[in-house]
């Protein structure tokens, strides 16, 4: 059995981060960041296999900006090496705003969404699905 997959949780709510960490920690190595800028630094440090990314942090669309930065198609981008990392967007934005969105390669380059609060079984199923094709 290989080393556990690395997951980066990006959320500014410490209670959400702790709940996600507790759900994932037995099967995965978990890293955390509480802002978009911290997330971008951590991506370079730990090269995660999966990113769980909140939408609303310092701004209402900070998670969108992080996903666009990571998925920048420019091969000269400083994040080009990380552009294939699956992103699971974690959001309560549908509860708090009239915005509606779905994964979109150009405008919202993420692999899947999950609404807060997320049930542990739902989270684990989505994580397993997204990691299924991600080889080290």
Walk me through the structure.
This protein has 136 residues and is α/β, with parallel strands linked by helices. It has one domain (6-131): 3-Layer(aba) Sandwich (Rossmann fold). Helices cover 35% and strands 18% of the residues. It has five helices and five strands, in the order βαβαβαβαβα. The chain has helices at 14-24, 36-46, 62-70, 93-96, 120-131; strands spanning 6-10, 29-33, 50-54, 87-91, 112-115. A five-stranded parallel beta sheet has the order 2-1-3-4-5, with helices on both faces. α4 (93-96) links the parallel β4 (87-91) and β5 (112-115). α2 runs parallel beside α3 (62-70). The chain is globular, with a radius of gyration of 14 Å. 30% of the residues are buried. The model has no long low-confidence stretch (mean pLDDT 87).
Structural topology:
Layout: E1 6-10, H1 14-24, E2 29-33, H2 36-46, E3 50-54, H3 62-70, E4 87-91, H4 93-96, E5 112-115, H5 120-131
Helix pairs in contact: 2-3
Structure at a glance:
The protein has five helices and five strands, in the order E-H-E-H-E-H-E-H-E-H. It is of the alpha/beta class and 136 residues long. Strands 2-1-3-4-5 form a five-stranded parallel β-sheet, with helices on both faces.
β-strand number: 5
Task: Give the radius of gyration.
Answer: 14 Å
Largest sheet: 5 strands, parallel
Give me the CATH architecture, please: 3-Layer(aba) Sandwich
Classified in CATH, the superfamily is Response regulator
Q: What is the SS-derived class?
A: alpha/beta
| Tally of distinct domains | 1
Mean pLDDT, to the nearest integer, reads 87
What is the assembly state of the chains in this entry?
single chain
What CATH calls the topology is Rossmann fold
Listing every helix as H and every strand as E from the N terminus to the C terminus, the arrangement reads EHEHEHEHEH
Q: Please count the helical segments.
A: 5
* Proportion of helical residues: 25-40%
Neighbour order of strands in the largest sheet: 2-1-3-4-5
Sum up the overall morphology in one term: globular
Estimated share of beta-strand residues: 15-25%
CATH class: Alpha Beta
Termini gap: 13 Å
Low-confidence stretches: none
